Amino acid sequence: MSAAAAAPESQSNASAAKDTGPLAGVKVLELGTLIAGPFAARFLGEFGAEVIKIEDPKGGDPLRKWRKLYPEAGGTSLWWAVQARNKKSVTVNLKAGEGQEIVRRLAKEADIVIENFRPGLLEKLGLGYDVLSKDNPGLVMVRLSGYGQTGPYRDRPGFGAIAESMGGLRHITGYPDLPPPRIGISIGDSIAALHGVIGAMMALHHRNMNGGTGQIVDVALYEAVFNMMESVVPEYGVYGMVRERTGASLPGIVPSNTYPCRDGSIVIGGNSDPIFKRLMMAIDRADLANDPQLAHNDGRVPRTAQIDGAIAAWLSTRTIDEALDVLNAADVPVGRIYSVADMFADPQFAARQMIQQFRWQAPGAKEGEGVDVALPAVTPKLSATPGETRWLGPALGEHTDEVLRTLGYDADHIARLREQHIV
């Protein structure tokens, strides 16, 4: 069964698409590039906010050329289709005085400004929060940077990979006899982006419901990763314990691991007390299921090797499908390790319409050379006001004229700005 659900053809003209969703009426100005800032703005746009993305007239956001392009020669990133969906692209030269004035006028009408430049850059451009909030005291500014707006490292460049390292994630990832690997996606940037969205929503609530004013949401990428580190800090603080890499297992929580079958591997999470008992009965180890020393996790941890060995022995003679049939029948959390091809073929993805098809006139493609592109559906699913994809990643500057007209610029003024390479 295919998980790629049909969806309405992408609306390339943002002016023809009405903002809907729980954030309809919220105006967002995005000054970011690449991942962290744009992902935060994308999230808000998926739930109805009007997102105006400012791009450099000379090439725009570098993500337009990252990873796989369509068309492959000189085309636009397929990632762009999703990362910039529901956004309006406006080109502005931020180094020009008139360009800065455009941004100030847009910020005056905005609820949220999202930026992920190095700290201090907006201030040098005359676009710091102190300036923008004078005309808009209710403005919320989300600032995403490697190390935050303060501290001795604030001026260092910081990407997600560095944040994952400093925040502790890399140290505990992988096998103890190998160097720490990276996760295959930019998880540090994405975690920081979600922290930015949460902070923006809290700041808006405070402004709208508690009589507050706007404020700055200061997200350091390394701190967002650090915030996900569970019990690492108190374990070190009390016992001086440094958690190390443990491969596929979850340290101190037993059993939770990746186990080999005859034709591949599966993941089993049997770490709650009743699930552990069901798991042991399912693999014909009633002795372990009924052992009082193993009734709770703290008793199972010292016998991790014995428990994992019992599970591995049972799986060694079975295929993945055979193991899944038995363990699912026993109500044990278990699953195969999916590739994206598995996701496209899975009935659960299909039932929840998690992969949707759109027709995209990719920037850089010839007229009429559209492509059917599959995108992840909007998450989470709200029952009354769900998010949606209203249009896909726009061409560079596609909405410049439209947005400038809303600020009172007439056609002659816009033409002059374009001639002077300000937009």
From TrEMBL:
<dbReference type="InterPro" id="IPR003673">
    <property type="entry name" value="CoA-Trfase_fam_III"/>
</dbReference>
<dbReference type="InterPro" id="IPR044855">
    <property type="entry name" value="CoA-Trfase_III_dom3_sf"/>
</dbReference>
<dbReference type="GO" id="GO:0033608">
    <property type="term" value="F:formyl-CoA transferase activity"/>
</dbReference>
<protein>
    <submittedName>
        <fullName>Formyl-CoA transferase</fullName>
        <ecNumber>2.8.3.16</ecNumber>
    </submittedName>
</protein>
<dbReference type="Pfam" id="PF02515">
    <property type="entry name" value="CoA_transf_3"/>
</dbReference>
<keyword id="KW-0808">Transferase</keyword>
<dbReference type="InterPro" id="IPR023606">
    <property type="entry name" value="CoA-Trfase_III_dom_1_sf"/>
</dbReference>
<dbReference type="InterPro" id="IPR050483">
    <property type="entry name" value="CoA-transferase_III_domain"/>
</dbReference>
